[in-house]
Specification:
Layout lengths: L4 E5 L3 H13 L3 E6 L2 H11 L3 E5 L8 H12 L3 E5 L4 H9 L4 E4 L4 H34 L3 E6 L4 E4 L1 H7 L3 H4 L4 H4 L1 E3 L10 H8 L10 E4 L5 E12 L5 E10 L3
Parallel strand pairs: 1-2, 1-3, 3-4, 4-5
Antiparallel strand pairs: 6-7, 6-11, 8-9, 9-10, 10-11
Length: 253
């Protein structure tokens, strides 16, 4: 595994050099030690560090919080703040940048190591989740089947291109609207309105048995499509219902 790249930003030379020695002893690659916010931003752009150790109090027009905000926005590098003391207003500004951790000076090597390992682990997990999210989004967007997701209140949260084609709704127009408005479904024989599968599932709090029967979907422009669909409950990390995903396609005659 490649060494994690760390950028140190601290205007106390002795402290910064001590942190550099500790990081090297722990097996990390120090890509730079700088004392100003401007230099921190510049080196972050050059080296794209995996993590930045940032002193909150820096001399100059920008402090460590300003630098952290720019680095996170432009380069996506997470930050651990270093601080000896700070007022509540400064700490509130720091919290808004969502740092991975705080280290209170002076700290011992075991504290530094624990903070780094935890921060880098959280960052790896976050990147994996982002990559999987992008992969899943690409798969859904390229599917021939139509896919619609709704939240716990039955409001549309996503349509893929196939769903846009069948419903006649664009995703921007459909977002936040009730699924019954975007997907008007009728009984194909009686042509009467039926309880929408997504609404049925949300009311029961469990997957609904659709019985494999088709529905008649009336699109926004009045076109009718005989469709078959399947639905599944979306659950949060605690296992509680948080929405529904519907997958449907034109039914065979």
């Amino acid at each position: 595994m490649a060494q994690a790249k760390i950028l140190i930003v601290d205007d106390e030379v002795v402290v910064a050099e001590d942190i550099r020695r500790q990081l090297r002893a722990l097996g990390y690659l120090v890509v730079g030690v700088v004392a100003s916010a401007d230099e921190a931003v510049r080196l972050a752009g050059e080296h794209r560090p995996d993590l930045v150790l940032m002193d909150i109090k820096l001399k100059g027009p920008m402090d460590g919080i300003d630098a952290a905000r720019i680095i996170q926005t432009q380069y996506g590098a997470p930050v651990i703040y270093l601080t000896a003391f700070s007022d509540e207003e400064t700490l509130e500004r720091a919290r808004e940048t969502l740092p991975l951790a705080y280290l209170i000076k002076p700290f011992v090597r075991s504290d530094l190591r624990a903070a780094l390992e935890l921060a880098l682990f959280r960052q790896r997990v976050s990147r994996i989740a982002e990559q999987r999210g992008r992969w899943l989004d690409a798969v859904v967007q390229s599917m021939e089947d139509a896919v619609v997701t709704v939240d716990q209140q039955g409001r549309v949260t996503m349509l893929n291109p196939a769903a846009e084609g069948l419903t006649g709704w664009s995703q921007p127009d459909a977002l936040g609207k009730a699924v019954q408005e975007v997907m008007v479904v009728l009984d194909p024989e009686s042509r009467r309105s039926v309880l929408h599968p997504a609404v049925q599932m949300l009311r029961k709090g469990t997957s609904a048995d659709l019985g494999g029967r088709p529905f008649l979907l009336v699109s926004r422009n009045g076109h009718e499509h005989r469709i078959s669909d399947s639905a599944a409950m979306i659950r949060d990390e605690r296992g509680d219902p948080s929405g529904v995903v519907l997958v449907f396609r034109p039914a065979s005659a």
